[in-house]
Specification:
The chain is of the alpha/beta class. Helices cover about 50% and strands about 10% of the residues. Helix 6 packs across helix 7.
C-alpha cells in the first residue's frame, strides 16, 4: 500500500465545466482526455495489500511501456491533490494526465477504493477498463506483514523511516500481536472475496491474476504477463529489471508465527482451508486459463527471460 505521496507541482487542469455531470466525468470528455494524453487502455489491478503490488508497479514502470501501477486514488494522495482540483471528475482527469505512461494508465486499488472510484466517472466508463488482480498465496505471511507495517510505520524498504541497520520490531505482547494477525487474516479473506465478486461480474474474458510469490520468483515473467495482458510489449532492447525493493529486516516474526499457531492454530487452519477451496482455487484456475490463452496466441517470451542480472530481494515471508 502506498505510504506517502507529495506532488511537487500543481496537477494539469481537468476537463472544462461541460466535462462533468453531477461531479462525474462524462464518457465523451473521458474519451477526449485519453486521446489528448495518448492513452489507449486503462488497466485496473485490484489488490488486498501487502501482496507485491508496489514491487510489480515499480518493476513494470522501468520498461516505460505499461503505466506506473500506483495507488493513484489512495486517500492521502487525494487529500493533497484535491488542493488543485474542484470535483471528482476533475480529480480523475488530473490523475490520468499525470500517471499515464507508454499509452497505458494503470492504477492499483483496493475494492473499497475501487467502489469510490466508480462514483467519479460515468457508469459507462468502467466497462472499458481491463481488470486484473494481485494476490498472495500465504495469507498468514500477508497478515503478519500488515501487522508489522502498521505497528512500525514502515511499509517498504524505500521508506524514509526505515533504517536497514536496525531490524523492525514490535513492542506489544506476542499474544496481542497474534490476535491482530488473526484479525487481518479475516479481513484479507473478505477483501479477496470482494475482488472475486468484482472480477466475476466482468464480461470481457478471464482476468489476469498474479501472485506475490511468482512475482518474487520470476519478476521478468510477471512483468511480461502484465504488459501482455494490458496490450503492450516492452521494447526489444528493454533493460532487465533492476532491484527496486530490498529485504525488510524484521525481529520476532518467527516467534509471532509460532505463537499465532499455538494460540489460534485451529481457527487459522479453518480459514486457510476455506480460502484454498474458494478464492485460491478460483485464482489458480484463472491462471491456467491465461496460460492456455497465451499459448494459443503464441505470445513471445520475455526479452530477458532468465537474465542473471534480474535481482529482486523481497520480503522473506514470500518464501514461507
Amino acid at each position: 500500500m502506498i505510504e506517502e505521496s507529495n506532488p511537487a507541482t500543481p496537477l494539469p487542469h481537468g476537463p472544462g465545466p461541460d466535462g462533468c455531470v453531477d461531479g462525474r466525468l462524462t464518457h465523451d470528455d473521458y474519451q477526449r482526455i485519453l486521446s489528448e494524453v495518448g492513452v489507449r487502455r486503462v488497466c485496473v489491478s485490484l489488490i488486498p495489500g501487502r501482496c507485491g503490488s508496489t514491487l510489480l508497479g515499480q518493476l513494470v514502470a522501468q520498461w516505460g511501456c505499461c503505466g506506473t501501477g500506483t495507488e493513484a486514488f489512495h486517500e492521502r494522495q487525494e487529500a493533497q491533490w484535491r488542493r488543485f482540483v474542484t470535483n471528482d471528475g476533475f480529480y480523475f482527469a488530473s490523475v490520468v494526465r499525470r500517471e499515464a505512461l507508454g499509452g497505458i494508465f494503470w492504477l492499483q486499488s483496493t475494492p473499497l477504493r475501487h467502489d469510490y472510484l466508480l462514483t467519479m466517472v460515468a457508469p459507462t466508463i468502467p466497462s472499458t477498463w481491463r481488470y486484473s488482480a494481485i494476490l498472495r498465496r500465504d495469507v498468514v505471511a500477508q497478515a503478519m506483514s500488515y501487522v508489522f507495517a502498521i505497528g512500525s510505520g514502515v511499509w517498504h524498504s524505500s521508506s524514509r523511516r526505515y533504517d536497514p541497520s536496525t531490524p523492525i520490531g514490535l513492542k506489544e505482547d506476542l499474544d496481542l500481536l497474534a490476535e491482530r494477525v488473526v484479525h487481518w487474516i479475516v479481513e484479507l479473506v473478505a477483501i479477496e472475496e470482494r475482488i472475486r465478486q468484482i472480477l466475476d461480474a466482468r464480461i470481457d474474458g478471464p482476468p489476469l491474476v498474479l501472485f506475490y510469490e511468482d512475482i518474487v520468483r520470476d519478476p521478468q515473467e510477471a512483468m511480461l504477463r502484465f504488459c501482455r495482458d494490458a496490450g503492450s510489449m516492452p521494447p526489444v532492447d528493454a533493460p532487465p529489471a533492476r532491484q527496486t525493493l530490498s529485504r525488510l529486516k524484521k525481529r520476532g516474526d518467527e516467534q509471532l508465527r509460532e505463537r499465532l499457531m499455538a494460540r489460534h492454530g485451529d481457527s487459522v487452519s479453518r480459514l486457510i482451508d476455506a480460502r484454498a477451496e474458494s478464492t485460491l482455487a478460483w485464482a489458480e484456475e484463472l491462471g491456467r486459463l491465461a496460460e492456455r490463452r497465451d499459448a494459443a496466441a503464441g505470445s513471445p517470451a520475455s526479452p530477458h527471460a532468465g537474465s542473471p542480472t534480474t535481482t529482486v530481494v523481497a520480503d522473506p515471508e514470500a518464501q514461507k
